[in-house]
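Protocol step 4 of 6: structure prediction from sequence.
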Amino acid sequence: QVHLVEFGGGLVQAGGSLRLSCVVSGSIFSVGVLGWYRQAPGKQRELVASITTGGSTNYADSVKGRFTISRDNAKNTGYLQMNSLKPEDTAVYYCTWREYWGQGTQVTVSS
């Protein structure tokens, strides 16, 4: 059975940084697209970033230059490094891998 667990959310001041981690268990992590989505209160869930098996990345315009997605296949873990955080980045962040989803982790950025 596949499980995704996110770590690293929390409260940070504007301009600060957080690193989210997503640990995948129960399957071969090295194959499959890893993605991070977020959902703010009253808004639709949106794709923040994704990374393919080969390492190609894609970012939402709102986070380009501030967020970096990466993966360590040896550790079955994906990451989202978030720098220069803004209050509008406040949301629940979800990790996805193939068709599977994590439970989400709250990121709150105070002004």
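Step 5 (inspection) to follow. The radius of gyration is 13 Å.
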